[in-house]
Amino acid sequence: MTKPLLDVLAGKASSVPPVWLMRQAGRYLPEYRDLRTRASGFLNFCYTPELAVEATLQPIRRFGFDAAILFSDILVVPDALGQKVWFEEGEGPRLQPVTDLAGLAGLKASVDLDHLEPVFETIRRVKASLPPHVTFLGFCGAPWTVATYMIAGRGVKDQVPARLAAYQDPRFFSAMIDLIVGASIDYLSAQLENGVDAVQIFDSWAGILPPNEFERWAVEPVERIVKGVRARHPHARIIGFPRGAGSFYRDYAQGIAVDAVGLDWAVDPAWAAREVQVVKPVQGNLDPLALVAGGDALYRALDRILDALSGKPFIFNLGHGIVPQTPIAHVEQMLKRIRG
Ligand code: CP3
């Protein structure tokens, strides 16, 4: 049986696009909130296969999405590099900041894949129980985005600590990027070896970089990851998501050998059809808040996307993660509109 989403990644068009949603396993689902109470802390949730398998499958059962995304987090990579990582309830991630070469020397030289074995166990179990037409996606964070958290120790406005480090201490900053590039190649390769069909590289903070820095920190390291993964898995399918890349989306699509490019919600789908989709398949890009609002706002946004991008190589998604206050009825209405 063929997998519609993998067909798109191979460059094929279909009249009805395959659909999945970033953060589709999450707090907008009552069954997720229920499952979440069974783990002590978010990282433990990610490292408990029984729970992570269930979280991965919940949105597939409820909505019949065309892809399941591994339930985990981009910050398991710094965790497996030996950095202290935890999640504050109701707030978000916290890390013991690494801000100089001495701090970097305190981390492992490469990612500890044994530490991530529960993630690989989750992958093997999900693979065994997924419907055959559903594509199974693994992921990692892009080096720039992971570095912003490793340096600041949390999500901060405008990523000031990481941007300053890149300018002021380039030796430290590029060493950190190199470490994450190597870790990501090992981690994505292991995900593919354990059974994911394709992987997505999330660069959630790419859009904050000025032009020279975008090329250096958002394009070049991701290109090295793509090459490194393909050296081990020549047919690996890879989606790149440089959130907020704006006019650089075209350069990103041309410059990096990813199979598809994820668009954030600020990109005009008609522009993306002309400038990006002619280069490679695109994924996106409904505003998650249009999905919260529902009604006319939702249908207008949906139709603009579908009119511009459907019938060509296209994967429907949001422009960033689904938010906790999203009504489930709106997700159902959205799917009806897309699938007709
Ligand atoms: O459903 C899926 O998409 C799969 C799982 C997934 C999670 N995080 C689970 C999660 C994926 C792919 C991610 C990626 C991720 N994690 C990114 C890149 C994509 C993006 O959203 O920008 C980033 C930057 C992170 C780091 C992270 N993890 C933050 C900043 C937060 C706190 C914000 C929040 O939404 O709470 C998390 C926590 C997190 N990761 C949750 C989930 C379901 C919520 C935690 C909870 O349930 O308590």
What ligand species are in this complex? coproporphyrinogen III
Distance between the ends: 22 Å
Question: In CATH terms, what is the architecture?
Answer: Alpha-Beta Barrel
Helix content: 40-55%
According to CATH, the fold-level topology is TIM Barrel
Average predicted local confidence, pLDDT: 97
Which band does the percent of strand residues land in? 5-15%
CATH class: Alpha Beta
Instruction: Report the radius of gyration as a whole number of Å.
Output: 19 Å
Overall number of strands:
9
SSE string, helices as H and strands as E: HHHHEHEEHHEHHHEHEHEHEHHEH
Oligomer: single chain
How many distinct helices?
16
- Shape descriptor: globular
Which structural class do the helices and strands define? alpha/beta
Strand arrangement within the widest β-sheet reads 1-4-5-6-7-8-9
Number of domains: 1
What does this entry look like structurally?
- By secondary structure, this protein is α/β, with parallel strands linked by helices.
- The chain has a single domain (4-91, 109-146, 181-339), classed as Alpha-Beta Barrel (TIM Barrel), CATH 3.20.20.
- The protein is 50% helix and 13% strand.
- It starts with a helix and ends with a helix.
- The model has no long low-confidence stretch (mean pLDDT 97).
- It binds coproporphyrinogen III (CP3).
- The site of coproporphyrinogen III has 22 residues, from strand 3 and strand 4.
